[in-house]
What we know:
- By secondary structure, the chain is an alpha+beta fold.
- It has two domains: about 5-240, ATPase, nucleotide binding domain (Nucleotidyltransferase, domain 5), CATH 3.30.420; about 250-425 and about 460-488, Nucleotidyltransferase, domain 5.
- About 35% of the residues lie in helices and about 20% in strands.
- The strands form eight sheets. Strands 18-19-17-16-22-23-24 form a seven-stranded mixed β-sheet. The protein has a five-stranded mixed β-sheet with strand order 3-2-1-5-15, with helices on both faces.
- A hairpin with a 3-residue loop joins strand 1 and strand 2 (about 15-20).
- Helix 12 (about 320-325) packs across helix 13.
Amino acid sequence: xxxxxxxxxxxTSSVRAGIFSEDGSLCGxxxxxxxxxxxxxxxxxxxPEIWWRATFEAVYESLSTARISGRDIAGISFSGQxxxxxxxxxxxEPVAPAIIWADSRSAGELGxxxxxxxxxxxxxxxxxxxxxxxxxxxxFWLRKxxxxxxxxxxxILTPKDYIRYRMxxxxxxxxxxxxxxxxxxxxxxxxxxxxxxxxGIPIEFMPFVVNSNQHISETEGIEELTGLPDGIPLxxxxxxxxxxxxxxxxxxxxxxxxxxGTGGQIVTPIDEPKNTPDxxxxxxCHLPESLWYLMGATLSAGxxxxxxxxxxxPEEIFDGLSKEAAQTSPGADGLMFAPYLAGRRSPVHxxxxxxxxxxxxxxxxxxxxxxxxxxxxxxxxxxxxxxxxKTGVKPSRIIASGGWTNSPVWMQxxxxxxxxxxxxxxxxxxxCFGAALLAGIGTGIYDxxxxxxxxxxxxxxxxxxxxxxxxxxxxxxxQYMNLYLHQD
Length: 488
């Protein structure tokens, strides 16, 4: 009997393939890394063929790790990095490297893009600020500056949709990924054909939209590469953040997850789409048809700590740095850090913002700098939470997920700054697990999103705030806000 589910997550730096049993137990996991190509400072590209090769290698290894056959897989679904993707020609071959979310070549076109689309349409339909790295901005740039590539385009796919296409040959997407292209009517959950028309993008380029839990096709012709025989159901999937939310069992407004990876995110479902103040947060479609989600995103969260380590102490492991930070007083004895190493996305969109250390004194040690980096990242996420609260969404429960949860001091800083307890996720592969749950919903193993979410194990660890730190961090947060306000 087919009793296993396969979730595939196409991330920015790696693909991960996870095999889970119907009760949610992780049976096998494998990953393959790949680079981001940066031919210039404003470009971020990846080779779609490398995505595909990494995927079939990871899937093959995950089956071996789980000690099962591909014939034991009941269904497959997908999670993937958002906003950008791959453009294909009439023969379904990439016309150029995939242009991903971190690409900023279109920064100079954003003002013109606002004029072409119009602020009213942006607020009414897109419900998000325009920003670089999205298909809206990238395609506008290509049409203007690279007409040779533009003329060859016939299909546009996000990363996870491209991988699914390689397994079955169909061009499809779903609302959670489509809404993050900024070419999609978020409220109606359909392509914004008038905005596409204004930008000169034929709607025929865009993949057909179906629901995230829809059984779209079956595997075909990939057994030799992946170990997956023909006929395994393929379920659409979703963008990585809402899929990770499902993997954490999050379907209710006010339940939030905070993730620190390369960037940082705060995500919560909402029952109806609404504009945030000045469109300062992202408003995208969630996986269930009746839900949307709010997201605040930072660009240099875990990246800030990695930058510090790689630049100043490349021989040191992160656990060692975390211990040094734990031995340093809260507030790092006056040393502060603004984590804008790659600019800002929300609540202020400012690609020109720069990182800052402030208050350096002779007394400060490496541990002070590490703690200041951790506190600066948390302050930026706190700013996002405060912005989210202005929309009327209050946190009822916060789940911490991602690699940063391996650092007790970083989680304590977060709990102290927020003044709220953190429930540490028991799931280590949230996006893969969420994709596997989608596969289970689409194949009828679970009869609803709720029943799928019900098998997510409860967090076993809670990090409570320390009351004696709340006043200190409240004052430090005000000082942190001034670091950006005083940038010229």
